[in-house]
Please model this.
Amino acid sequence: MQILASGLFSAADSYGKGTATVEIIVMLLVAFILGYLLRKFLSEDKVQEGNLWEDKYKQLEKQYVLLEKQYQACCKEVEESSSKSTALRVVNEFQTKKKNVKEDLKKVEGIGPKIEQLLYAEEIFTWDDLANTAVEEIRIILEKAGPRYKMHNPETWPEQARLAAQGKWEELEKWQDELKGGRRS
Model:
């Protein structure tokens, strides 16, 4: 240990102990300043990062409170009007099933497979849908499909569809025997 200490101060003997002391103090001061600056830069990043996380947390907390209020209001509304809610659910289920049910529209004289697909594309799936569609609206659908379909006359289609929807098959067949390509003779 004594050898180490004497070797350390031996350089100081050559140019004086005062100069060596000043050099040591300057080196310590530089090390302190570098350490201080390094700590400051690293801690600022952490503070900024911490603030970002805190801001994000507060934002999510506000969203949670808002969603919780909406959920509570929704639950209250369902409790207050359970019959209304049930009715809406039944109507929605009916509409969903209706879209999944596609009746054979080709039973109407004058409608073939391609026209049936055109009607399906316009959400005319059932005989009731077709019966409640105006002749002009059907003509517009046919015109949009191109000149091939323009020649068809949908004048009797809603009436035929109404008979089919009511299950009046004999009456429909008798009438269709009198029709030519869906048109009145």
